[in-house]
Design a protein that fits this description.
The chain has eleven helices and no strands. The chain has 305 residues and is mainly α.
């Protein structure tokens, strides 16, 4: 059983991030009246990038050279603690939430200092924005996960599938607001519209993309894969919340949810423009509002409010 969990989760991490990105692009092409590239095009692009050489600025130090590897290793390690397509995590421990969050934070930290190491004022500006967004998202994430886990007293990600069982009449509302909050987190941490636009080329409005302007070749391939894995991990938490505990068709429902969320992201990006930078924080605070609602509903259930 453990071998199946490890193998299935490895396969998911290897291929699903590229499929998610491909489906998002395909959906955007559909709404734009175009046929679009294959859903496997991001995988082809990744293979092409790893074959290319890379150029490093003379002002960059070893920090910049190591950043893609460390960020990728941090995201891969974080994936060990998340239930993926098998419905189980490779490493399932009570402190999994803390370890997961701070491995992602470690990857984000090196991404930020790697961008600033280039000496570019534009990359420093993007780093500042990225750090500000994360400082709001992370507390909301802890509130949501901590509240849901407190319902069962089981502080592992396995408890996410038992919300309806533990919350009673509050269960549906907790699931709805937790899923909405995590979906916003996918958009924010995945650098998607309306927070960011991965297709933009204007330095003054770029956030994540401006941080990787100096990366190329194999380094850029690792960074793009890491971004896709991060989206997959947060989407996996949404799937774990939605799919009931003990469902024999977990893998099938998991894939359906992953592909559905990819289609929804593509639809969102096709139907609205990126919001003004001054209003981005207001959008991010919506996630915090949903997190506080989840915490309030949990407190009402636990303390009989």
């Amino acid at each position: 059983m453990k071998g199946f969990i490890i193998l299935s989760n490895i396969i998911a991490v290897m291929f699903l991030p590229f499929l998610m990105t491909g489906i998002i692009r395909k959906t955007k092409a559909f709404w734009g009246g175009r046929y679009g590239a294959s859903v496997f095009q991001p995988l082809y692009d990744f293979i092409k990038l790893i074959k290319k050489d890379f150029v490093i600025s003379n002002t960059a130090s070893a920090v910049f050279r190591l950043t893609p590897l460390i960020s990728f290793a941090a995201v891969i390690t974080a994936a060990l603690f998340i239930p993926l397509i098998s419905g189980n995590a490779i490493i399932d421990i009570p402190a999994g939430l803390i370890v997961f969050a701070y491995f992602l934070a470690l990857g984000k930290f090196f991404s930020c200092i790697g961008a600033m190491d280039t000496g570019s004022s534009f990359e420093g500006m993007g780093t500042s924005r990225e750090a500000c967004f994360t400082s709001i998202v992370e507390p909301a994430f802890f509130i949501i996960m901590g509240s849901v886990m407190a319902l069962s007293g089981n502080y592992t990600f396995e408890s996410l599938s038992k919300i309806a069982e533990n919350a009673g009449s509050y269960g549906v509302l907790i699931i709805i607001f937790a899923v909405l909050a995590l979906f916003l987190m996918v958009l924010i941490e995945g650098c998607r519209v309306p927070v960011d636009d991965p297709a933009t080329h204007l330095e003054l409005t770029m956030i994540h993309e401006v941080m990787i302007l100096d990366n190329s070749g194999f380094d850029l391939a690792l960074i793009s894969w890491s971004a896709g894995i991060k989206m997959l991990l947060i989407t996996s938490l949404i799937a774990k919340i939605i799919i009931p505990d003990g469902n024999p068709f977990y893998a099938l429902y998991y894939l359906m949810i992953v592909f559905l969320i990819s289609i929804i992201i593509g639809t969102v990006e096709s139907s609205m423009a990126r919001i003004r930078m001054s209003h981005v924080f207001e959008f991010i605070f919506i996630m915090s509002s949903f997190a506080l609602i989840v915490m309030s509903l949990t407190a009402a259930k636990v303390f009989g409010g």
